[in-house]
Amino acid sequence: xxxxxxxRKLHYRAHHRGTREADAIVGGYFDQYHAHWSEADFDxxxxxxEEQDVDIMGWALGxxxxxxxxxxxxxxxxxxxxxxxxxVGLGKAG
Length: 94
What we know:
Number of helices: 5
Number of strands: 0
Largest sheet: none
CATH architecture: Orthogonal Bundle
Order of helices and strands: HHHHH
CATH class: Mainly Alpha
Strand content: under 5%
Structural class: mainly alpha
CATH superfamily: Flavinator of succinate dehydrogenase
Shape: globular
Mean pLDDT: 90
Number of domains: 1
Low-confidence stretches: none
CATH topology: DNA polymerase, domain 1
Distance between the termini: 49 Å
Radius of gyration: 14 Å
């Protein structure tokens, strides 16, 4: 598979998780950081995409323990949640 089509596939999978929250976390993470990933980082991310949204969100939010296999620098960046773009007007009283 060529690099361009592989990136498009990962982008799609990252942004179409099934819930808006998971799309924001996983998709935002991919968008913000993938340009600097190594091949090992891409392998880690592709494996992460196979996990359940509720687990990924729980790990990112710190509400559930992160299994040893997911521990490391990639998860630490995921947990920052500084890559999520909130919709305009969110949280403003109407």
